[in-house]
Amino acid sequence: MIITVQLRGENYEDWAKHVRNALRTKRKLGFVDGMLQKPETEAEIEQWVVVNFMLVAWIMNTIEPTLRANISMVEEAFELWEDLKCNSLQGMDRTSVNCEVRF
């Protein structure tokens, strides 16, 4: 996945827009927006796991290195996406958001 914007923390909205657009072009957005859940059948699980880990690597590679060093490794792209979104809400009113930040 190629995008020119790196996540630096304060630019989450811009970064997320670019990543979502890139994932749409690859038909992979469902992995990060929760629409494509891990399948239950053995035959489909292996392919899902391969794509999921590829997306985790893609997303991690779009994060500024010093910020990336502070991110806990997660195994699912959706979980990583949610963690990054919640972390971006620091300093904002999070009363209506249920986030468990793992940074």
From TrEMBL:
InterPro entries: Copia-like_N (IPR029472). It holds the Pfam family Retrotran_gag_3. Residues 1-40 form the Retrotransposon Copia-like N-terminal domain. This is Retrotransposon Copia-like N-terminal domain-containing protein.
